[in-house]
Each structure stands twice: as C-alpha cells, then as structure tokens.
Design goal:
It is built from 5 helices and 4 strands. By secondary structure, the chain is mainly alpha-helical. The strands form 2 sheets. The protein has a two-stranded antiparallel sheet with strand order 1-2. It starts with 11 loop residues before the first strand and ends with a strand. The relative contact order is 0.17.
Length: 179
C-alpha cells in the first residue's frame, strides 16, 4: 500500500464510515489538533522523561489515537474504539498519584523548566485548542459526550506531568513574576 492516494489532492478527506468532507471542517480540525497534541507528547517522550512518566505518556498517546478515531467516525460502528469514562478516570488516577509528589502551587507558573516539561506544556496548550474545537463541533453536530471530559482532564494531566517532570529532575517550576 502506498502512503499517498491522491484522494486528498482537491482538499477533501474521507471520514471513517462516512462521507468525504472538506479538510477544513470542524471534525477534521478536531482530530487533526488531537494528533498535534499526540505529536507534542511524542517529542516530550523523545526528550527523555523518567521511565515511570514515559510509560504513562505512552498510554496517553495510545488513548489519543482513540480520540482521533472517535472524532473521525461520525457514524456508530462497532469497529471504531470510542473515548470512555474509564479513559478519563485513568487520567484522574495519574494526576492524583503525581500530585502526591508535588508541593501545592502557590503561584502561577510559566511553561518551562526541563525540556520534557516544556514540551508537555506545549502539548497541554495544543490539547486546550483541541478542546475548543471539539466544543465548537459539539455545537454543530452530535459527538461522543465522553470526548470533552477526556480532553479537559488531559490538559490537567499534561500540566501536572510537566510539573512532575521538573520535580523528578530536581528543577524548579518557572514562577510567573508580575511586571
């Protein structure tokens, strides 16, 4: 199978089990943004987080493929995995476990610290953009109601993961200093 099909050369793409649509529709923007978030997590993993964090990030990357498949599949299909409350609960468990290692926040922090943390902050902001696009999509058409809680919790997870990457590396978070 060739990587190129030429079917998208006119600015359209096919949804799983659905019609061909323009590449700039909200559904495509949503799963494309989730894919960007996944890629940013991949860059954070390539920067060398500790093995425990890396394993959790690998699981999150796999979950983001489910997010993409869910968003790319407007029709019900038993063959397409869907985002579930169990996936959101997994993120909450990870957040709770990591927060036991962290001092409570006393001030706002800036993205930065270690390279891993900086990339996780980037992934967090991409996740927030994905969430905004999914909110817009949900206003126009039906989506899996588990998508928004998952993306909201994912951005929280990525924030805490960035903090834990810094803490485990012995690097302080970067405090915001009011001008």
């Amino acid at each position: 199978m060739k990587i190129y099909t030429r079917t998208g050369d006119t600015g359209e793409t096919g949804l799983f089990g659905g019609p061909r649509v323009r590449k700039d529709v909200l559904r495509v923007e949503a799963y494309g943004t989730a894919d960007e978030c996944n890629s940013a997590i991949g860059v954070a993993r390539a920067a060398g987080p500790d093995p425990m964090l890396d394993a959790v990030l690998a699981e999150v990357q796999n979950q983001l493929f489910v997010v993409g498949a869910d968003l790319a599949s407007p029709n019900d299909s038993p063959y397409i995995p869907r985002v579930s409350a169990t996936m959101t609960a997994f993120l909450e468990e990870q957040i709770d476990a990591m927060e036991t290692e962290l001092a409570p926040l006393q001030q706002f922090i800036l993205p930065g610290g270690t390279t891993v943390a900086a990339y996780l902050h980037l992934a967090r902001t991409i996740c927030r953009r994905a969430e905004r696009v999914v909110v817009s999509l949900a206003a126009e058409e039906a989506i899996n109601p588990e998508l928004l809680p998952y993306l909201n919790r994912l951005s929280d997870f990525l924030f805490v993961a960035a903090r834990i990457a810094n803490a485990r590396a012995g690097v302080d978070d970067v405090p915001w200093r009011k001008p």
